[in-house]
Amino acid sequence: MTTTESGTVAPGDVAAETEPEASPLVVRDLTAAYRGEPVLRCVNLALPEGRLIGLIGPNGAGKSTLLKAVLGLVPVLSGEVLVFGMPYRKRRRLVGYVPQRESVDWDFPTDALDVVVMGLYGRLGWFRRPGKKEREIAMECLEKVGMAAYADRQIGQLSGGQQQRVFLARALAQDARLYLMDEPFAGVDAATEKAIVGLLGELKSRGKTVVVVHHDLSTVRDYFDWVVLLNREVVAAGPTDEVFRPELLQRTYGGRLAVFRENGAPTRAEG
Amino acid sequence: MPLSDVWSDPNVRWVLLGCMLLGLSGGVIGSFTYIRRQSLTGDVLAHAALPGVCLAYMAIGAKSVWAFVVGAALAGWAAVLCVGLLVRRSRLKADTALAAALSVFFAFGVVLLTFIQRGEGGNVSGLDAFLFGQAATMTAGDVRAMATLSAVVLAAGVLFFKEFKLTGFDPEFARSIGFSAGRIDALLMSLVVVTVVAGIQAVGVVLMSAFLIAPAVAARCWTERFGRMVALAGVFGAVSGWAGGYAGTFSHQLPTGALAVLAASALFVLSLLFSPRCGLLARAVRRFVQRRMTRAEFRRAAVGVKKP
Predict the structure, then answer these.
(1) Measured between CA atoms, how close is B67 to chain A, in angstroms?
(2) CATH class in words for A25-266
(3) Which pTM does this prediction carry?
(4) ipTM
């Protein structure tokens, strides 16, 4: 990877190597559309392994689209995406995905445990049914997010925070090396937020790479050690200390950012 | 025919078994479409099957289940394609586009059907049953074909149960782990077409679409587990199919399909009234209990205020 000594990767400065251990995620000249409209323009990115990475930008910046483009869920118009040096379809098993909570129908007739078992479907492949072993793994994952007591609860009866934890447990069940999480902190209670932060720390300590779409600028410094600033294109990417600075944020959010300084740190964004 | 004699007559026995199997597969496949909010698409496929089947008949000049499946599938595919085009190219919303495609294809089918019936051999073809169904006129061959198709549909439903559940709940996640939601969709729509063709003689296309919806909706009222819901919808469908087939044995004039759908609708109304989930009765009871409790609390509070 062509990085500076501090680990900063400038936009457009992209890894040339493709060996599997190079980078969990390399994006080259990516242009992607959402609902027929091109959203991302020439995105270049190379993420380091084993970090908690915040993906930050205003509404409509293409944060979700970037994750979906990586996962092959939206059409990629040009450019390429490499996951551990290979196209995504050859690396599915190494990637865990937490979609936005609103993206599914929570009235669906199923319980929390069943949703977590779905995280193991990829490993099972076509036709094979989940059995006792799969339910045990899913139960362990529910325990890790503090939801074991709700295993047989219909998912619609769970609170927003609890539903989010079920989604995280499903991602844990995937046992991936790279996690892509789309706004896991959106609309959750304080207890869930704390639980998620603890979980992210644990994933990091196990060497996992976690990319989190995040909105609350006041917590970025506390939660993430690496940050990607995105607005249709990558404004900056690198360690939080170097990249999470007022002038770069101003450039990311344009005129819509009202920065309230506390000890020189930006604390709030009005998107 | 009295209930006790039904099983002694081999013809009637086959017809009843066929209707039950049909209801079973209709309930199961209907659950899959209902849960992914594609009931209306199933409706369109059922109605679009009519012109497809008529064209298939005109092309080969005889009744053939396999030709019917191909015809219905092609017509259904064309209808879904039209819906997609309308949604993308016009300002119509999906439900309007679906309704439009449904009426146009069905009207075309009715015209073709009339044309066939006016022609040579139209009266002996038995195609007149295609609109509303008439189980009593079915031959042993018809029943066998119907049973085979239903069995195929059921087998596919069991085999792909996990995939249907996953793509129904979270299609994007499904795609991210390698289960193409598009392929599962196509498979499900094919199963709908096969189910409709299987039921065309006994129930008719118009009511086959109801058969794909009513048992599933009724079953959803009783359970929060997907597997149980699918099984229950199958049972509801089978019971309705049997009821329709049985009532049809009283007179050849009675349309089996309509009777079966009335039975399914009765089950749906009962579910709506008495089930714990969507039950109007259960809701009334809950409200009554709550009001009582609130009143008791008020009284207690009032007493508490007076005391000091």
Answers:
(1) 29
(2) alpha beta
(3) 0.82
(4) 0.83
